Amino acid sequence: MPTAFEHVYLKSTGYFMPGEPVDNEQMDAYIAPLNRVSRRIKHRVLSENGIRQRHYAIDAEGNTTMSNAELAAQAIQHCLRRAQIDLADVSLLASGTSGGDTLMPGFSNMVQGWMSAPPLETLSVHGICAAGVGAIQSVAQSIELGAHSLGVAVASEMPSRLFKRSRFAARDYNTDFNSHFLRWMLSDGAGAALLGRRDAGGGIAPGLQLRLKWVHQRSFSGDYPVCMQLGMRENGGQTHLDYPSWASAEMDGALSLRQDIRLLPHLFDIGIHEYVGLVRDKWVDPERISHFLCHYSSEKFIPVVDALMSNAGLAIPRERWFSNLAWRGNTGAASILIMLAEFLETRALAPGDQILCYVPESGRFTTSYMLFEAEADTPAVESRLDSATQQVTARGLPPLSTQSMDAGAIAPPHDPDQAPEGLGPLLTELAAIWHDYRSRVWRTPLLRDLREHKFSVVDYQRWMANWIPQVREGAKWMREATASLSDTYAPLASLINTHAGEEQDDFKILFSDYQRAGGSINDIDAFRRNPGGEALNAYLHALAATRDPIGLLGAIYIIEGTGQRIVPALLPLLKASLSLPPDAFRFLEYHGHNDEHHLARWLSAVGLALACDDAGIAERNIVNTARRTAALYLMQFQHVKEH
């Protein structure tokens, strides 16, 4: 029976392919045919498997360019960047691979070490193609049980080191078809998946969550002989550890990766038998499957799988199938994770869509299935809305609108689709940072209480008291930044100074709002930033003191964007919740109306900065600073409710 999940969601995916793509002709530079027999095997295998290109983490001389642990780490970093999640927020790392860089310790520990990751729980799943599913299942089970809120599953393979010419030249492989076969089948790559509970961050796409409904794995190793193996002689029996030395094991072929292709048809018989059982027991409805991600090692097996499903009367139309085998190659345990990541990167999902993943493992025959279902990112919001509306109605306050509740309705400060020429990539990256930031802000205790009309005048006073000293510093660090600009960025300095001049007295408006709201502090110098505001202020001043601090444009994007996007959504809630005079909200009113003009000026400043940037580093600095500012600004919001 499958392992069912109620609270596990796929938050992000990522993948990494080393080096440039290697086509079928270029393969000879990496794993050249050894003789005429080898050349004939190559043409036969490539004509059947449908692979047109693949990636290797070795160079043409057979030298290793990246370790398997580094491939996995790169995939994890890609996955976390997409989710805007720090590695420190992940408490579980599970890996799947058929072979790490070392026999010991476990692969997850080597990946953690390569990344210099903080202490966390690790699990290494050793196997072949299904090891990646095993890693996903182990993370999902931990999340379902509540042991972890966020965990990463990664699968990485690097078989190229086994196939380089130097390993085959030492002995006669003329008749050893099973060891030649996999040289033309397998390649390198890594994929990663971030799993968490629904409330542990954003979804797989704006307004969309992808729930892992169940995982099903069964091994039939007790029923069939070994099909794919590394570490035994061609005819089984003696293992590599039973030889006097590894050199003698190598010479006898015990360290060659082999597959008995005569057994492969049985693997798909088993897999479809399991599929029929899943349908019979109502775990799968073929008519509801929107997308079928099938890991097959060769396109030769597509009609085999299709025919078996059709014969059972349970076919999934071929137009719903997705595979990247032709251009990513067969990367073993990593294949399904790379496939899933690329599918989500290139295909749009709608609520209700189901994704069925199928992974057959030929080692000693294991079959694995996973089912995902897309959900609108609104049920939890609607539930909170109903509850809050009841409370508000009982108190005689106007009900909250769906738009004011739904963080997804708050667009990024600048639409990447409307970007001036050359700014599209930058605005796209910033929009991703923005969506994660405003989503997290919307879920802070401060805004939660505001949405649910539990926000008091005292809360408003405390918020203003924390905010006043931060706003007071804004014009100062802007002017410090312009003083740090070299002549290269002279056109930019004037624009920023104009902006700083307009905002230098804004803190006085905020102080006046505080007093009209009944605040008791009369000396403006007595205000203190909360820990989040203190960290943000220190960061901005320190960055402003460096040479050419162009990255501060990223900080302005977040700060002004907050005033132009988040504040207008908060203002109606504040007025509905607090019995205060209209002039207690002048600062928020002002920024809601004027930050749009400020952001237009920001766009001009960015255009100038990029035009002046001969080294091409300004764009990256802007993105990095925006990400760090968002984290620190979020910290300020979080600390408002902490006494």
Topology of this protein?
Layout lengths: L2 E2 L4 E8 L5 E2 L4 H4 L4 H14 L3 E2 L13 H16 L8 E6 L9 H9 L5 E6 L4 H15 L4 E8 L2 H4 L1 H4 L8 H5 L7 E8 L11 E12 L8 E2 L16 H6 L6 E2 L4 H17 L8 E6 L7 H10 L9 E2 L2 H4 L6 H12 L7 E8 L4 E11 L2 H16 L7 H4 L18 H19 L2 H7 L5 H27 L6 H14 L2 H11 L14 H14 L7 H26 L8 H27 L5 H22 L4
Parallel strand pairs: 5-6, 5-7, 12-13, 12-14
Antiparallel strand pairs: 1-9, 2-8, 2-9, 3-4, 7-8, 9-15, 10-11, 14-15
Structural class: alpha/beta
Number of domains: 2
How much helix is in the residues? 40-55%
Count the beta strands.
15
Shape: elongated
Rg result: 29 Å
Mean pLDDT: 85
Unreliable spans are 379-410
Structure in words:
This protein has 24 helices and 15 strands. With 643 residues, it is an alpha/beta fold. It folds into two domains: 334 residues, Peroxisomal Thiolase, Chain A, domain 1, CATH 3.40.47; 246 residues, Heme Oxygenase, Chain A (Up-down Bundle), CATH 1.20.910.10. Strands 1, 2, 5, 6, 7, 8, 9, 12, 13, 14 and 15 form an eleven-stranded mixed sheet that branches. It starts with a strand and ends with a helix. About 5% of the residues have low confidence.
